[in-house]
Amino acid sequence: MLQPALVLEKAVPQDLNDLSALEQQCFSADKLSRRQLKHYINFEHSLLLTAKLAGELVGYGLLWLHQGTRLARLYSLAVSPQHQGQGIARQLMSELETKAGEFGWLYVRLEVAKRNTSAIGLYKRMGYRVFGEYQNYYADQDDALRMQKCVRKLSKQAVLHPALWYQQTTEFTCGPASLMMAMASIDSGCMGDQILELQIWREATTIFMTAGHGGCHPFGLALAAERRGFAAEVAVNTSGPIFLDGVRSAQKKQIMTLVHEQFQQECEYRDIPIHQTDVQLAQVEKWLSQGSAVLALISTYRLNGKKAPHWVLITGIDELCLYLNDPDVEDNQNPIDCQQVPIARADFEKMITFGASKLSALVVLYESF
C-alpha cells in the first residue's frame, strides 16, 4: 500500500486548533501559546509551514524573518511523536530554507539543546555549523548550541573583519559599544566593560537629541579612540553640526553646535582626518581589506520601524551584503540575531542616511604606528 505523500504548505487560520494541539503534544516547556501561533500564521515577518499526511497535521516549522536584514531564524520545529523518524523534520527544514532563499534571506540560524543529539545530528547533516553556545538558555537550565547555515550561495571573496560582540547596556550607548567592538577587533585586550562604555559616552555625546539622552558624534568617537592609542579618521557628508533635525529648542541647537565645533577643533589639533563625502561601499571594502575597523551611523527604520540614529560595526562585505555587529538587542530578539547580521547592499544604502538632511557618517579605526 502506497504511503500518502507529505504535503508542505503555509499555515492558514483553519490550522490553529491542530497546531495548538501539536505544540502541547511535542513540548513540555517553552511552548508557543495559542495566541502566539495565531500571530505567526498572519505575521508578515514570519513563515509558518505545516506538514500534513492525508490531511492530518504531523509537523510544523516556524521561521522568523528579520526585518531589514537577510537573516532568518528557526523559531520552532515540531513533529508528532507518532511520525518521528520518517524524515519529516528534514523535509520541513529543507522547504523552510528554500522559501527563505526565495524571499531573499541569506542565512538561517537556530538554537538547539546540547543534549538533543538527534536534532544536532540532523542539522549538521543539513550543513549547519556550530558557532557559539548559550549557558542556561532554556527554562530547564539546559545549555544551547548556536548553529547557522547559508541558504544562498555567497562569494568566497568576501572581505571580513572579525570582531567580538558587545551588547550595549543602555538605550543610548550604541556608539561606545560599537567603538569598543572596533577597538577589540584590532587589540583584543581593549573590549572593556560598562565603565568604559559610559566613559566613552561622556566623551563623545552631543549632549542633546530630539528627546532623551544625546547621541554620539562621529568626531567624539574618533577622539575617544585616538585617546586610547588608535588612529582614526571620519567620513561625513556635511561640514555643519549634526543631529539637529527635529530639535525645536533654539538653546539645544546652540549647545549642540558648540559641541560640534569643539569636537572639530580638537580633531584638527590631533590631526584626525575628516573627509566630507558620502558613504562609498567601494571605500568601505578597501578599508576592511586593509584591516581597519569601520563604524557606521545608520537609521534603524528598516530594522525596527523607528527613525533613530544608531551606531553599528561593519564586520564584512561581499557582492551581495554587508555584515554588521549590532550592539542593541530588541525585546523580541536574541543576541545571536545581532552578530554578523547580513544586510543587502541595496538595503544598507537606504539605511546609511539619517534624517531630513540625509546625514551619513563613518568612523574608521586602525593601528597607530
From TrEMBL:
<dbReference type="Pfam" id="PF00583">
    <property type="entry name" value="Acetyltransf_1"/>
</dbReference>
<dbReference type="GO" id="GO:0016747">
    <property type="term" value="F:acyltransferase activity, transferring groups other than amino-acyl groups"/>
</dbReference>
<protein>
    <recommendedName>
        <fullName>N-acetyltransferase domain-containing protein</fullName>
    </recommendedName>
</protein>
<feature type="domain" description="N-acetyltransferase">
    <location>
        <begin position="6"/>
        <end position="152"/>
    </location>
</feature>
<keyword id="KW-0012">Acyltransferase</keyword>
<dbReference type="InterPro" id="IPR050832">
    <property type="entry name" value="Bact_Acetyltransf"/>
</dbReference>
<keyword id="KW-0808">Transferase</keyword>
<dbReference type="Pfam" id="PF11814">
    <property type="entry name" value="DUF3335"/>
</dbReference>
<dbReference type="InterPro" id="IPR000182">
    <property type="entry name" value="GNAT_dom"/>
</dbReference>
<dbReference type="InterPro" id="IPR016181">
    <property type="entry name" value="Acyl_CoA_acyltransferase"/>
</dbReference>
<dbReference type="InterPro" id="IPR021770">
    <property type="entry name" value="DUF3335"/>
</dbReference>
